[in-house]
Amino acid sequence: MNKAVKTAITPTRAENYPEWYQQVIKAAELAENSDVRGCMVIKPWGYAIWENMQRSLDAKFKATGHVNAYFPLFIPKSYIEKEAAHVEGFAKECAVVTHSRLEAGPDGSLIPAGPLDEPLIVRPTSETIIGATYAKWVRSYRDLPILINQWANVVRWEMRTRLFLRTAEFLWQEGHTVHATAEEAQEETLRMLDVYADFAENQMAMPVIKGRKTDGERFPGAVDTFCIEAMMQDRKALQAGTSHFLGQNFAKSCNIEFQNENGQLQHAWTTSWGVSTRLIGAMIMTHSDDDGLIVPPQLAPHHIVILPVHRDEASRAAVQTYCESLRAEIAALHYAGRPIEVAIDGRELRGGEKAWSWVKKGVPLRVEIGAREVASESVFTARRDTGEKRNLSRGHFVATLPQTLQDIQDNLLARAQAFRAANTVELDSKDAFYAYFTPENKAKPEIHGGFALAHWDGSAEAEAQIKKDLNVTIRCIPLEDNGNGAGTCIFTGNPSKQRCVFAKSY
RNA sequence: CGGGCCGUAGCGCAGUCUGGCUAGCGCGCUUCGUUCGGGACGAAGAGGUCGGUGGUUCAAAUCCACUCGGCCCGACCA
User: Fold this and answer.
1) How do residues A359-397 score in pLDDT, each as one tens digit?
2) ipTM
3) CA A319 to CA A373: how far, in whole Å?
4) Which residue's C-alpha is at the least distance from the C1' of B38?
5) Closest nucleotide to residue A351 (Cα to C1')?
6) Which nucleotide is nearest to A372 (CA to C1')?
7) Which nucleotides of B are covered by protein (CB under 7 A)?
8) What domains can you pick out in chain A, each with its CATH number?
């Protein structure tokens, strides 16, 4: 109390958003930088959130007919070379294994030995190695479709990294499917995009825009790339997931061929789709505040923590017993299809310090139990999302707990939706567009801009120009056009079919 | 790969320009005491190859050379 702390996290979002982001991660003990450049250590609290994401996504994949499998970490260099656009996109960021062992050097150091005949690439994505495998599996139309997902790590040698948002190694899932027809593959591509959007909104409480990428932003080797785009609290866009219709590009380069009902040999149609630990970054930047992380109940490792408050030794045993029985009662309840996760924090810490540690970790509900609560059969409870503190009868608290968690979940989504709506504008002139995306203070840019919905005629020149001038990109061409149909391109004056989403992005 | 900055305790830093007592400070950590319902206070402790190698010197965290690593700005980023 003596310490005049206004917020648990310094700096605040308004003061320095990127630094705030780093401090939230640190304070919540989600992850830290490792000794390996660009690679992070995901700590237990962060990994538990990832496990919850995995569990939920995995169930959705299974429910849409997919099964899991695992493919190698290493890809022969020649495989990557097969697809021209793919090489172009990934060659610059591949880790390459060239030797198979180490030998003692003259000064006691180890030097690589046993050069490989063909270097191996550490997978940046697995289209080529999985495609090569599928080529062996597919003979007949009866072998199709193949609907497989893998949970894996991938490596992309990024120049500049940020925890969760862009790391050299990251965890993800990648679905790779093979179909007999283009239509079926296109349906699959959009089905999985819907799965991602459903997960983002209902589990992460993060509203997203589903859309199609422009030619310039498309996945290397894809015919069509679809994405979900979310708005972070600095109003920048984050691509939260992608689903690609690969056409026959990889089927041709990997030789995935089958005989159709008429006995004709033809190339198959493939898709791939993925989301990564970047979603944790998205969750942080969507919901957290100046007191730290806020985890949506659906993803929270603990839904609720019980903090025993021991004021004197006389009541200690009674408080402890009360906490234990409350925990047992809560643990028997269910929320969102799983038992409510409840923990008692019995650490020998001061009350304030202990409470703040859970605020910073973003636990949805905190309960403090002392002699007063024991005496009156009540609980003192605080919501992380609103900060609201209440004294409730124990019976009422327990009976309404699942609903309270859902209220928090709903509130987070509603809050994020309102934020996005408040920072989304329709712009109808190039001047207004440039004004919207230009900071008032160029030396120390304030948080400005947001999502701009504007007409664009498909001109790659205009797309390149705004990227150069403003660092603004077309995030996507929305699948659901709520921007009232056709109009005029604000850059060229040519006709435009619909508005696109423009924003600065991560 | 170009331009700039920085490596001193777990973290954040001072000291380097102008070489000189036993290398300091804050936070954190350990122990004890008093405290405890929203981030306590006091006392006593532990913790350092000053990024590395070589050189100059009676003497190097400090000066010189080389080298390794990191950060920022560019370029790059499904």
Assistant:
1) 999 999 999 999 999 999 999 999 999 999 999 999 999
2) 0.82
3) 8
4) A352
5) B36
6) B37
7) 1, 35-41, 69-78
8) 17-287 (3.30.930.10), 302-406 (3.40.50.800), 424-503 (3.30.110.30)
